[in-house]
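User:
I study polymers; will you set down one protein's sequence and backbone structure tokens?

Assistant:
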Amino acid sequence: MSSSVEHRNGSVAYVYLLAVVAALGGLLFGYDTAVISGAIGFLTTHFNLDPAFEKGWAAASVLLGCAAGAAVAGFLSDALGRKKMLLLAGALFLLSALGTALPQTVAVFVVFRLLGGVAIGVASISSPMYIAEVSPARIRGRMVSINQFAIVSGILASYFVNLLIAWYGDSVAPDWNVQYGWRWMFGLCALPAVVFLVLLTFVPESPRWLVKQGCPDKAESILERIHGPEAARNELAVIQQAIAEESGSLRQLFEPGMRVAFTIGVVLAVLQQITGINVFLYFAPEIFKKMGSGVNAALLQTVVVGAVNILFTVIAIRTVDRWGRKPLMLVGSAGMGATLLGMGAAAYWGRADLWVLIFILGYIACFALSVGPVTWVILSEIFPTRIRGRAMAIATVCLWLADFLVTQTFPMMDENAWLVATFRRAFPFLLYAFFCVVSLVFVWRYVPETKGRTLEEIERSWRR
């Protein structure tokens, strides 16, 4: 009886399976972006990097690759399909992991970090877009948030790997981590990349992309497994009608209704980054060390940061389809701003005690509950099917460029003599708190609620 009901109504387990496989791209995304946090200190010593510019460049160079990858992936995913882009991301992750583990010069390291950035940029678009297009409306927010859970899981995995390798290196020789430890930190990303590539061979293409390509029969067979036979036919008809009304040109983004959607997507993408999240993901051990912690203690505290990130991402997954996108964004932006002010005060008064860790954990919790996963959910929902890849590409390129700006400028602000003398290392946190206020006002004023609506219903609402 239960199997016949599942056949009639579709298989939620099948949707979860597709989402989890696609989200492995997010796990690699998280690992590859955050692994630098534990390696940057050893890397700086190994290559004798200048702390004001070269150190920031070693960390931030990957983000230019992310922007390039996002730009390319958006157009190619509309032309070649979502699945092919996921396969490309997996191959690039594998190549980058091996390349960053073996360089003899910082220039070669940066080249492979840029290549890894291209992989991250491709995955940052392709994974959430694929998941959104195969998920029923009632659970789409939860499914896309699985990708964010995978991202933060990758981040936490990198923190654990960094900590274990650093501990091992300390037990072997004083300079083992400087010579070899950071290489292992990057190289171990090759293992999940291989798993990702293998599993991708078992998942189908996005049914919405297949309809766009004129393959309704293939699309219907996939939709039947997701929705059940009767609902699949209705879903197919709705998709066909929506795609028939789309021009397929980027000019569509500048039509009156779509122009609003496009602006919202770009602004949300930029605000996700300029509120400072990746400063803590990339430089957390360095921040803790400057506030008085030892190397291993700083890495251990960073693991705690990653654990809190995962815990509150799980809460977001469970609540985004129940409470809605907008309430989570409002609560999260307010909480991030408040904790950043607390961090600014702690930095100004030179407090290196438990309060610093509490404020950082509070900030991470608020981000993971809201701005982190919900931004990706909204970006994957609000654009038309024919140009979803290209529209997401433009918004995501803006996101990665904003991330690059924040990552490149944080060491500059943190090492600037005048800012340190005037604000005592509080200035970056106060600046990010200001952008949290901007985020709060923008979401409250301009971002609509999309909970429980199909992608085609959302598209029609912009046209109206």
About this structure: Confidence is low (pLDDT under 50) at residues 1-7. Residues 301 and 357 are 8 Å apart (CA to CA). The first helix runs from residue 2 to 9. The radius of gyration is 22 Å.
